[in-house]
Amino acid sequence: MIGVGWASLTCPRGSVGTAFGLYPPYALFTFLIKHMNLIIQATHSIAAAHLNHLAKLAQSKQREQIAEHVYRLPEAQAHPEIAPYCFEHQLDYGFVPRGRSLKDFGLLVMDMDSTLIAIECIDEIADMQGLKPQVAAITEAAMRGELDFAESLRRRVALLEGLDERALQRVYDERLRLNPGAEIMLAKLKEHGIRTLLVSGGFVFFTERIKARLQLDFAHANTLEIIDGKLTGRVMGKIFDAQGKADWLVKIREELELRPEQVIAMGDGANDLKMMARAGISIAYHAKPVVREQASYALNFVGLDGLVNLLA
Prior knowledge:
The chain has a domain at 1-100. It is α/β, with parallel strands linked by helices. Strand 7 (218-227) and strand 8 (230-236) form a beta hairpin. Helix 4 runs antiparallel to helix 5 and helix 5 (132-143) runs antiparallel to helix 6. Strands 8-7-6-5-9-10-11 form a 7-stranded mixed sheet, with helices on both faces. The protein has 13 helices and 11 strands. It is elongated. The model is unreliable at 1-29 (pLDDT under 50).
């Protein structure tokens, strides 16, 4: 289901635009697009020529600047050239139903590695063992959907056997950084009373520290087994994978007594797709192609605050 604002509406995917943002098939949505705003945003100044061209394609007669590098084109209509044009000029875009805003939502569910934060924690832990290239290659294959996530995690964690547990704190202190716009996004969510759930196929060591640091509401991840101060190369208990993320989204949503359409899910890898499918809106953040193709919206260039701009 594409998050266009009507919960009963479905449409096929795979058009040129779904790789870069929300692009409903033209013939199917012509009458609905008249009720859409086209949001254009970038990390840089957007040339008037680009805005004029997009307005012409979308048949929008107005242009509203809603933030420094963010514009709204009201009464916009879909056009197959919008997606490739935006991608070529490093612009992010999305068709948003007129009147939809953050006030319509109650929960944001986020992946951690390469979504909320700018690193893959397990790759950086492996670097302490001199094994980053080997582990990173497995990580990349898993995120593209080429490997089963649980098996890929077991293989990666096994390579960490014997590493001193202090390496985890070093990764947190020295290498972990939030992605751009994270704090702006979270502040705006809090302002609207939207709860936050951090889910990760990574490790509790990091999710719990980030949860406390950013005052997130909920978090869940895997636990590394540590004996006598050393990593054993094993994960404790059942591996928290793609299905686990989806299940936790539903669990917290039900605890908060929210409807599915009141949930936003954000991720970058194949193991985020199941949870994204359970949300009213899904956001692919600097994501792999397989994720961009199935998300409601894709943020390829802007920071996490791009979510706020979409739903301003």
